[in-house]
């Protein structure tokens, strides 16, 4: 009921000040709340790995073609 998640790579379409402010803010939150920081870091690493895997699979030709 909340809506769809943003498309992958949406950060790259934002104007540069948005990530320039958001990234240090996320790091500060992770530093201030270590348990949240570790789980956030794990989520971001997993999301990045899944994105790379998805991108590699899209680049391959279909089996049998």
TrEMBL record:
Keyword Transmembrane helix: yes
Superkingdom, taxonomy of origin: Bacteria
TM spans (from-to): 20-50
Keyword Membrane belongs to the record: yes
Keywords: Membrane, Transmembrane, Transmembrane helix
Full protein name: PepSY domain-containing protein
Taxonomic source organism: Actinospica acidiphila
Phylogenetic lineage: Bacteria, Bacillati, Actinomycetota, Actinomycetes, Catenulisporales
């Amino acid at each position: 009921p909340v809506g769809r998640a943003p498309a992958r790579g949406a950060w790259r379409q934002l104007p540069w000040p948005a990530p320039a402010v958001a990234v240090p803010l996320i790091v500060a939150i992770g530093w201030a709340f270590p348990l949240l920081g570790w789980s956030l870091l794990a989520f971001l690493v997993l999301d990045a790995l899944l994105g790379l895997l998805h991108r590699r699979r899209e680049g391959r030709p279909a089996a049998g073609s």
